[in-house]
Every structure is written in C-alpha cells, then in structure tokens.
Amino acid sequence: MSAPLSYVHPTSDSPWGTYLSQVDRVVPYLGPLARWSETLKRPKRALIVDVPVELDDGTIAHYEGYRVQHNMSRGPGKGGVRFHPDVTLEEVMALSAWMTVKTAAVNLPFGGAKGGIRVDPKKLSQNELEKITRRYTSEIGLIIGPQQDIPAPDVNTNGQIMAWMMDTYSMNVGATSTGVVTGKPLHLGGSLGRVKATGRGVFVTGREAARRIGLDLRSARVAVQGFGNVGSVAAELFAEAGASVVAVQDHTGTIYNEAGLDMAALVLHAQREGVASFPGGERIGNDAFWEVKTDILIPAALEGQITAERAQKTMARLVLEGANGPTTTDADDILAERGVLVVPDVICNAGGVTVSYFEWVQDFSSFFWDEDQINQRLDKIMVNALNHIWDTADHHKITLRTATFAVACERILAARQERGLYP
Q1: Which of 80, 100, 306, 378 is the most buried (most CB within 10 A)?
Q2: DSSP symbol at 260
Q3: Catalytic: 184?
Q4: Which is the catalytic residue, given 41, 44, 102, 114?
Q5: Distance from C-alpha of 263 to C-alpha of 164, rounded to nearest angstrom
Q6: Is 112 in contact with 103 (CB distance < 8 Å)?
Q7: pLDDT for 67-118, tens place per residue?
C-alpha cells in the first residue's frame, strides 16, 4: 500500500480523519471488492485556486478557493459550494468523500465532489459577493460541467449564487447551460421542492427510524442544532407530525421551552434575528443544549459537533444527522454503546442531493414536475434506501453508519472494478 496523502495531516477527529476511519470500518464487509478500497481514501482531483477581486473601496483582495472531486466512477461529480472563513482543503476533501457515499447510498448516478471559498460572506457587499462568485466559477470552470461536476448550494450559498455560477459558466462556454449547477431559482431551471428537500429527507428518515424503534412522534421531544434550511424545515415537519420541538440552537444562542416552541413564529423570528432573542422560549447556555431531555436530537449545523463528551451527556434515543459529519468517531462508538440509534448523514440528509438529481434531469429534458410529484418520488427513494440499509445492518449486526457505507462502497467499487483502470 502506498503512503497516505502528503498534502493533509488528518487527526482522528478531523473531518478527513473521521472519514478515513469510517472507510476502515467498512472494509471487512466488502468481500473481493476490498482490494479496491484504497480508491476510497484518495480524491480523484483536488483543485486549489486563487480568487482575486476588487473590493468596493478599490483594494484588491485574494481568497483561497477549492473544488475537490473525490470519486466519479458512477457518474459526474455532485456536491455543494460553501463560503465560510474556516473552509480548508481537508474539510472539502471529507465533504466530497461523503458526497460520493451519499449519492451511492440512495443509488443516484453521481459521484462525489465539493467546493468552497475561505471567506466570511457577511463581510462582503452584494457586489463583492457576485464578483467573488463569478471569479471562483471561472477558475474552477476547467473541471465543472453538466456531465463533469455539478455544484449546488451549501453553507452560506443560495439560489442567487447558483444563478451567478450558471451565468458565468454559460458565458464562458458560449451557450446557456442550466444543468451546470442545481439549487437555482425556479425561473432559471430550478426545481420545486429543492429548498426544503434536505430537511424533508431528515424528517422522512427520522419518521421511519422512529417507527422501527417504537417511538411515537406524537409524544416525542425534539432538539435541533442549526436552524437554517435543514434544521428549520425538519423541525417544522416534526412539529406538524405532533412532536414537540423543545430546544433549538443556532449561531446566536440556544432557547428552550419544555412545552414546545412555536415553530411557525420561531422560523419567522430566526430569519430576521436568529433564535436567541425569540420571546417564546427561555435562553439557556450552549453547552446545556446537549443535556436537554429529548427523544430526538438533530445536529444540522457543521461537522464535529457531537464529541465524545457530548455523546455521554445526550438523553436522546435517536440522532438524525442533518449536517455532514456532525459526529466524531469516538462519539459514534459511545452512542452505539449507550443504545442511541444514529441515522447517519450519508442517508439522513440525502434528500437535498436527491432533489438536485431531479432538477438536473428536468433541466436536460426541459420538462418540469409539480411539487407533489417531487415529494412523492423523494419519499419513495429515501424510504427504500433506508430499508435496504437497515436490512444490511441487521444481517451483519452492525450500525446504520457502517451499513450505509457497506451498501454505498460496494456500489462505488463495483463500478470502479467493472470500468477498470485506464490506461
């Protein structure tokens, strides 16, 4: 076996280190395909780009951008673009790898990719944000395309940014190319249901998992970390199903209401000011969030949030990973030992990429579906995928995370083996 990647030095609880440990755990279940497992530990391509822009005050600023294509054996790369001051190459590598597993877990004809710029978009004007988006798109234009790699929104990016990316790419190739990104505005080839798709997927998998372990949603207590598109949508859907959302945490702080928070009012308030100043709940310390008496915990913020210490504290019976990589490897083991069921990110939050696939298909055909059709197809794919993974977990007596990796990695490596090596 060759030496590990020289351009990253992962620790056991770093995003890439966590991913590598997840791969190691699945190798024993891959049979003859295990000989290809090193493929999963090496991104196919990692591009680092300089993103120079002229700011509104006339100064020239330089930002570092990334696009990583982890594996494309099953189809073009697929994965979001995030704008965040803490973005690193290692993080983007891990996120791209989880996208490879995620698309295979729900059996979509995609590989995994991810992108990002190390920048705080809150410090940029709209004009500066457009400039940095367009320059980044031009720099990574060498490797993206409707049949090569299809970006999408992620942390701090949205439909407007996807519109700028699509327009920039289209201008550079000399033709309108709606399929180069997903998560676009509806009038530019976007899909109905896309904005709420990830949160809906969290709810659908959570509903099925709760049914299997005998947890009645009508009496369930829910705690949500992260209240953006994923966390807020999942929280609303659980509330509609009869559950009480008792605690919510975002970047502004944590609120708690033992009787349940008013989701409709909280969503509106959070969009304006964040959750901390919401009058319908008591403000508590951020650390106290992890000790709230709850049945369902939904980490829907950033990676690495459920540490070993927090895993010991949580009172939840069910963890639904709305974020990518929110649980460290040590914490995963502790939750399993304590009998806490974890529905892993690579299946739990796959609703977003599933509807992105629907958008991509609709763009190619220029024929668009209504929202009921999209939700029905999304629900069917998510439920079927979870059932297959659950059966695999029962058969091998392994966790849902390892089972998800087993199902996905078998598909990825079977494609790699059948395609062979070129040249």
Answers
A1: 100
A2: -
A3: no
A4: 114
A5: 32
A6: yes
A7: 999 999 999 999 999 999 999 999 999 999 999 999 999 999 999 999 999 9
